[in-house]
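To: structure desk
From: M.T.
Subject: fold request, one chain
Message: Could you run this one when you get a chance? Sequence is below, nothing fancy, just the single chain.
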Amino acid sequence: MAYDVVTLGETMLRLTPPEFQRLEQTGQLEVFVGGSESNTAVGLSRLGHPVAWISRLTQNPLGKRIANELTAQNVDTSHIVWTPNDRVGTYFMERGRPPRATTVYYDRSDSAMARITPADLPIELFRAGNSRLFHTTGITMGLSRTAGETAIQAAQLANASGWEVSFDLNYRSKLWSLETAWRSCAPILELAKLIFLPSRDAQAIALLHSKNLALHQIEELLAVVSDEYPSAIVVLTRGADGAACRTPNGEVFLQSAFPAIEVERLGGGDAFSAGFLAGYLQGSGIPRALQMGAAVAALKYTLPGDLPLIEKDWVEQIISGDTIKLNR
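Reply: Done. Structure tokens follow.
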């Protein structure tokens, strides 16, 4: 196979003031590259999996910065749709420390990726044997009507070619309401072999189904999603409480979080998805996949920026309880 995983989504430039400054006071901005699907793609690549990323980018230095950074991480960017029009999405982040929260401001309306259409998909890529799995998220679905249509068609093509489909709800309230997101994502959720979502979103979905469940009622939250999509492996991320998973036959597995001194949380969920998918593709079982997801997420928390620039042996050392050692 050409790839283990093919991803589809928007990647933006993130602009952040240094040293916890606010945007209104800084004279400098640090530039990072980040997007949910490409974050996961980089994590998978760092763990040894061949992966491709499909997107639509503006042919200018900003678009090239994104493509170059992903290419440097051995993510195949040859399927990018380049356009001389539109714009690259950006977002700004102010790092905070209690009692001041970290704050994000998006500037992504009418981006090149928001204007992608199903006709932009590389149909020849979606052939049997070209990949094992297709991965996208609710962020891509929420960018625009045509982006959602493109993601649905990509998932349908992947499924028809015998690829497994992985979907991270990745709900963003600044894009749409949860009810709209859950309804609009149904065509992909129905195809998905793997569904990822944070426990807070699972709780909100439970309320959509008139079930008032607390966050600690993990098995009940898993059941709400599993009852609607019984063929999927459902994975809940729980922040400092770790993660949980329910299989189609009703087995539930729990995984605690690995301790980490936090530098930055952005991209932690995407890093978890990368670790879980890597373990899943290795065929080592759900407990191993959960361990790998938790380990990659913990490592990502120690890094600035959105990308999980981790080492494969670090993951093994964390799982085994060893202190990470530099090779000398």
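Reply (cont.): DSSP finds eleven helices and 15 strands in the chain. Let me know if you need anything else for the meeting.
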